[in-house]
Design brief:
It holds the Pfam family Fer2_4. This is (2Fe-2S)-binding protein. The chain has 84 residues and is mostly beta strands. It contains one helix and seven strands; from the N terminus they run E-E-H-E-E-E-E-E. It has one domain: 2Fe-2S iron-sulphur cluster binding domain, sarcosine oxidase, alpha subunit, N-terminal domain (Ubiquitin-like (UB roll), Roll). Helix content is 8%, strand content 35%. It starts with a strand and ends with a strand.
């Protein structure tokens, strides 16, 4: 099994999984909140139509976790919005 780094911690994933699939497989169903109301968000549509699963990958923000294949050594940071 391979590992990526999520919020500074290793996360194992199976080859062929997206970042979102790896997070959900590890039991993490939300990884950001909405600007208004701070409601939890994670993978919703799973096909890249919505923007609920946004993360920062290797320093590039606004990446849809459901579209990006997980790869060894990838660094993922979740996005917790603090804007009102």
């Amino acid at each position: 099994m391979s590992e990526l780094i999520i919020d500074g911690k290793p996360l194992a994933f199976v080859e062929g999984q997206t970042v979102a699939a790896a997070l959900v497989a590890a039991g993490r169903v939300s990884w950001r909140t909405t600007r208004l109301g701070h409601r939890p968000r994670g993978v919703f549509c799973g096909i890249g139509v919505c923007f609920d699963c946004l993360v920062t990958i290797d320093g590039v923000g606004g990446q849809r976790a459901c579209l990006v294949p997980a790869r060894e050594g990838m660094t993922v940071t979740t996005e917790e919005s603090t804007d009102e």
